[in-house]
Amino acid sequence: MWNWSNYVAPETIPNFEREFGAEVRYVTYESNEEMLAKVISGNSGWDVVFPSNYYIGPMAALNLLEVDRFGLDEIDRKIMMTILEKYGGGPVGISTIAASIDEESGTIEEVYEPYLMQLGFLDRTPRGRIATERAYEYFQIPRRGRSMQLPLT
What we know:
The protein has helices at 12-20, 32-40, 53-61, 74-86, 94-101, 105-118, 133-138; strands at residues 2-4, 27-29, 122-125, 128-131. The protein is mostly helical. Strands 1-2 form a two-stranded parallel sheet. It has a two-stranded antiparallel ribbon with strand order 3-4.
């Protein structure tokens, strides 16, 4: 993690490492300019970087944030493409989606779904998650037609 020098309390990283059994490499930077120069070089070596909010726009314009024009990241796209392509737009249950993309269902429900619903890409129904018409258009996925079954004669 690469962050501002005064952004995280000293006990936060050791507590996180103890609780989750993960090793965190935490290094600080002193200015957005320092951070941006390293990120632009293409080899920052960091999974998580925390720029100031006024640097987000320029970083997005330079395609440095790995988000699309709606702010969707790789996991957002995985969720939607799984629903759209693998499950024909739904309905599909949250546990099935989670297993398909190797993500916790609670994380999908709490972190990703609210924004996808706010954008109008996803609906929750009693039968499962359903991709909306707007999602089909945005992801440029043709709708599958329902095949008609002929009666037996």
